[in-house]
Design goal:
Helix content: 10-25%
Radius of gyration: 20 Å
Mean pLDDT: 85
Low-confidence stretches: none
Strand order of the largest sheet: 4-3-2-1-5
Order of helices and strands: HEEEEEHEEEEE
Largest sheet: 5 strands, antiparallel
Strand content: 35-45%
Length: 159
């Protein structure tokens, strides 16, 4: 009689993302011009009207957060400032965008990663986040909502 044993099969771990892959996922290396955090309204070529928060500005180009994790690109000339009050979730996005816009490469920051707050160095700013060097020397790519200056406490629990 032969006895069969079922051994667990371990799938190979996917390789860790490269710095280039993290940079690409975060929109590429870039620093915004003035205007990040502003509330705007614009209409798409298909006729859909959006209200959102500017995350990135370069020249006439705006990247605008319009919904949970949805960013649309439009022209500054097609957007207008919003006079009405924003929903609470967009107010939080606007605050986070302003804080991120004020950060500089080389600055010590605090960040939220895997449910814990830690401190590191902002190595490279991207459109929608940054590459951060952790204390152990590894690099992580983090979205703009997970970063704030090391000498400041977040105004809310970062998401």
């Amino acid at each position: 009689m032969v006895r069969k044993f079922g051994l667990p099969v371990l799938a190979p771990r996917p390789p860790l993302p490269t710095v280039d892959a993290m940079r690409k996922r975060l929109g590429g290396r870039a620093s915004t011009e003035a205007g990040a955090g502003d509330a705007v309204t614009f209409t798409t070529p298909g006729g859909v009207r959006h209200v959102g928060v500017v995350l990135f500005v370069r020249g006439d180009e705006l990247d605008v957060w319009v919904d949970e994790n949805v960013v649309r690109r439009t022209r500054r000339s097609s957007a207008a400032a919003v006079d009405a009050s924003l929903p609470r979730d967009l107010v939080a996005i606007a605050n986070d965008a302003r804080v991120f816009a004020a950060l500089a490469e080389g600055q010590r920051i605090r960040y939220l990663d895997e449910g814990r707050v830690d401190e590191g160095t902002l190595v490279e700013k991207c459109r929608f986040g940054a590459l951060v060097e952790r204390a152990d020397g590894t690099m992580v790519g983090l979205g703009f909502r997970r970063l704030w200056p090391a000498d400041a406490e977040p105004s809310r629990e970062p998401s």
